Amino acid sequence: MHISNIFCNFAALIRTTGDPESPNMNLRNMKEVRITAVRQTVYNDLMAKFENPIEHTCNIRQGQQWISINGQCPEGMCPAAWLTMRDFVRQLARGKGNFYDGWMRNPMSAMISCNDGFRPFSFYIEAIDKPKPNSKTEKPKALLSSQQRIDQRVEKLIVVIGKAVIPRRQIVAELDMRQSSRHTFINNYLKPAVANGYVEMANPKSPNTPGQAYRLTAKGLALYTRLLSTTE
Hints:
This protein is of the alpha+beta class. It has helices spanning 3-8, 10-17, 44-50, 79-93, 139-146, 148-161, 168-174, 182-195, 218-231, and strands at residues 32-40, 65-68, 109-113, 121-128, 166-167, 199-201, 213-216. 40% of the residues lie in helices and 15% in strands.
């Protein structure tokens, strides 16, 4: 089949397989989807000829990875890039791979580029199975995976802080949230981490000080160690 005909048929595939955001969708059996920024191609000649000079274009780095849960846009993903890959991610999350009759060697994957015509990034997206515990020693790791729907942001925060004492502004920078609101950081990262006993203020007697720093509690350090062990 010609590649142009293949891509024209994708809209029909989406219509027949449903939308993960539907209230009738069973989210329990959905797969997680890993998104990897594989390579960026830069067309300097096209930029010089057609583009107005701009100071900043893209925060994505080669090798950067995200995990999409329940077919949703992961934290930190470029919104424009997400629009180009969203339908593929959602079909993989539902186990509907093998796009275009054998396009990819791994049938549960796809290679998608963002829509920047001057410096497009290519993303490799692949469905991954959630770990299933088969022994007592594996249960904590599986439990951690099942909690990612709630705690993925908290885990990112824990990894950033590590064994250090870090000011809030530095944490925000390390999380690459410079463009995000203070409200998002506090409510989606900091408050859940503090409420669950993973993170504490370095200066609790002055909670509103501009230079407030944070550190991990004993519970947070234990989770930090466990998170590192899952990546080794």
